[in-house]
Hints:
Radius of gyration: 14 Å
Low-confidence stretches: none
Order of helices and strands: HHHHHH
Amino acid sequence: MKKQDTCRQLRGIIAAIDQAADLAEKYRYEDFCQDYKAQTTITGYICAITAYDREISTIVRVKYLLVPWKDLDALEDTISRADPASRPRILWRITTDVLSRSRPQLADVLRDMEN
């Protein structure tokens, strides 16, 4: 994969993380659990993140070991395997915890690759 392709994938991941975070900020946890549309939208962002992440080459993954690549790879599977009752809680945790912790690391990788 070319460097520019990897940068495009990273920008896609970061944009989806930002969109999910922006949406989650509009909700309290209890309200989010009741809003199926918001849950569906966040699920779409997470699926996009997973799709972009799976395009990142092994070389990049090895070079930037601090990024939780495996966690990002597993996001979509985690959601699809969750029972419907726990899905809102899992979506909330992914959005407010996993993605928010991964974003700075991904931004660092993108900055490094663009230079």
